[in-house]
Structures are given as C-alpha cells and as structure tokens.
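Course assignment 3, question 2. Fill in each field.
Student: A.L.
Task: Predict the tertiary structure for the chain below.
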Amino acid sequence: MTEKNNSLEKKYEFAWDKYTKKDLVEVSALSERYKEFMSKCKTERECVTEFVTRAEKSGYKDLNDIIKGNLRVKPGDKVYANNKGKAVVMFHIGKESMDKGLNILGAHVDSPRLDLKQNPLYEDSDLALFKTHYYGGIKKYQWVTIPLAIHGVVVKKDGTVVNIVIGEDDNDPVLGISDILVHLAADQLEKKVAKAIEGEDLNLLIGSIPTSDQKSKNRVKTNMLNIFNEKYGITEEDFVSAELEVVPAGKARDYGIDRSLVMAYGQDDRVCSYTSFEAMLKLEKVDKTCITLLVDKEEIGSVGATGMHSKFFENTVAEVMNAIGDYSELKLRRVLSNSQMLSSDVSAAFDPNYPNVMEKRNTAYFGKGIVLNKYTGARGKNGCNDANPEFIAKLRGIFNSENITWQTSELGKVDQGGGGTIAYILAEYGMEVIDCGVALQNMHSPWEIASKADIYETLRAYSAFLTKA
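Answer field:
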C-alpha cells in the first residue's frame, strides 16, 4: 500500500504496476532461487541443514565453537546456533549494546504432513503398507490419490543416522494412499467431508511383490524389509527411532499461464522462512543486532525442545551476550523486552471461488504486497497477539519510505475460524510483535500458491525492517 499526497483515501495497489524491467528480473531471479529451495527442502531438518550450509558460506560461525573456544563476539560478527537440526537462530551483531533491543524475524520451518507411526510396516491382503499419523491441520481427503514421497532420518541403535528420500528423483518410485472408486462410493459420499477419509485410513501403499521364500508368513512385508535392509542397512526395529515424513512428491513450479505465481509444498511457512533468511544474508553493517529465528513445531502448538515455547532462543541470546562480555540476568530481560519482531508467517489470500469466508475490506489479495496481520486468533481474537498501533505506525513509515507494497488482513470473517502463530510467545517478553508475511491460497493443502510479487515485496520489507526499525 502506498499513500498518495493528493488523496486522503488509502489505496491498495498492485506491486506489478511499479516494477521496472530491472525489478522484474529481480522478481524472477528470487522466485527461481526460492523454487529451488522449496523443491529440495521439504522437512524441517532439510531446511535447517540447507540454511546452516548457506550461512556458513556467508561467514556465519557456529556459536558452539565460540563457547568451546571461549572466544569473544564483537560488532559485525555473524553467528548461528543449531537446535537439534530442526531449528536455527542467526545473529548479526550490531554496534549498539544489545540492551537497546533486537530486530527479529521469526518464522517456522515445519509444515503439515503425514508422519510414519513408530511401528508403521504391515501387510494386508498381500499388500505392504505404512501406517501414518497426520501432523498439523490438514484436510485428509486432499492427501489421497496423489503422488507422495518420504523424507527423513532413521537413527540406528548405535547412533548411525541414515538419511532417506524416496520419490523425488525422476527415477524414483512414488507412493500413495488409495481412495474408494466412485462406482462404490455411495456410502462415502453421504458423509461429511471431515469424515469421508478417516485418519486411520491414511495408509501408504509401498509394495506388492512377495519374497521368494514361499514359507514366509507375510511374504510382501518380508520382501520390503529385505529391500530396506539391502538399501539402507535398517531393520524393522529401527523404525522406532525414525523420523520419516510423507510429503507431496515433485518440484515447486510456476503457476498460471503468465507465470505470476509459485506452487509448492510447505509454503506455510517456508516462504517466510526463506525470505527472512535471504534478508539476513543481505545485511552489511547494522546498528541494532539483527536476528532471524527459524523454529519447529508451530503447526502443533510450538511445543517440544525445538518449538518456540522451549528456552532455546532465550538461552541462545544469553550465550551471545556472554560472548560479547555483557551478560546479566537483568540485562537479558531488558534485551528481550526492548526488542521488536516480525512474526514472519503467512496469511490467507482472497479466493473468488470461496468469497463467503472472507470480508473483502479486510483480506489479502495476490500481488498487493506483504500482509500485516494486526491479530490472528479465532473468534474474538482468542489466542492472538494483537499488535500495538505505535508499532504498526512505525512499520508503515518504514515501508512507505522504501516504496514497499503492503496490505493488511484478517484471517477470514470474524465467526468463520482463525489460526495462530508464534507471535504471542515472543510478545510474552514484552517486545513489540506483529504477524507479517505472504498471502497464500490453498493453505495447508499439499500444494500451496503464492504470488511472486508478494514474495519479492516480503523480502524487501524484511530487509528494510532489519536495517531501519
């Protein structure tokens, strides 16, 4: 959104209208980098591994090495901390004391999916299948009859970690979950959508060839165990200590005949994670210390050791302050309470196929820039952060001065539903926080849609916030 001097009325404008040929080249280049990342990184582990690799190439140092070496951190230094391979936080140290506050971009790298159960493998009617348990909010019917892949790790009892990706290479097989044929679906079609596919029926078909040993009891399952052992060196018991995720198979792609959109799995919230990360790498000298915080478990309540509710972030800030030589418990409290954060998370884009769930004056639209959500929550703002107007005004000023296209939104009509982010968790420290990210169609579906213009404006907005807030 830009404000015209000759009008008192605010106008939501297309970002596309302002782009020069040079801008369009940058929009395209960013979308290509983003699609490459999204095609490669479909789990939180894969995201963190990729981010750490790229960060180290850009001069970031592992905080653990600094702690072990009893080394000092000074203005201009860049450090990161990796939380169990599933969350990461990056610091670019500014010249001002940290108790003046931090500029933080916070996003999450987990996405809705299916997880294999701990004892997943079984045989039924001469077919081998995996039992799954869905993770996060999904529409179960969207996950049947589409090509699926498995990404993740198996940790053997000796500690060896086996990385597994099945279904992404062009020469790989894909997997899938069956649905009943329409000819016999009379009973199913009478059910409500939420019950048409039950969670316990999301069983992944993985094979049908029996072992040559005709005396074996479960010949197809036995053959699958032989394949797993030959290729990965694992046994059935090893699945107990595995983290294997079932995700849509295939690459991120341009969407629309005009190639204006991106289709990819996991854009909630990796579109904001990726743009936050790129904004961090663009930093040069900064006054305030800048942070990009990418966490796990947001889709199931930000719980666990790698979720936002853990003490990882707070502890890491304390360690960085100590490495600077300026730590005390009181100063840590001041650092956090004086900070400001963009909760870098997605919003819902208006869909003309389903207009009744949105209130048109307070919804986001493709191509109209980064979205500010003053509050999320559900019905009566339950569970939301509800950002302060002073902070919103500050962001308006920054974005307008940088000619960044932006818009505001709610997550649907008041009584329709809602959602949550990590915003309220960071706000508990007393810092200023607002949800701020890219609008999506098909959110939480296997394939989500985003505008290339919005991705570009979001990167620009995150960069401006880090350097000017």
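Instructor remarks: The chain has a mean pLDDT of 95. The domain at 15-111+265-468 is CATH 3.40.630.10 (Aminopeptidase).
Grade: pending
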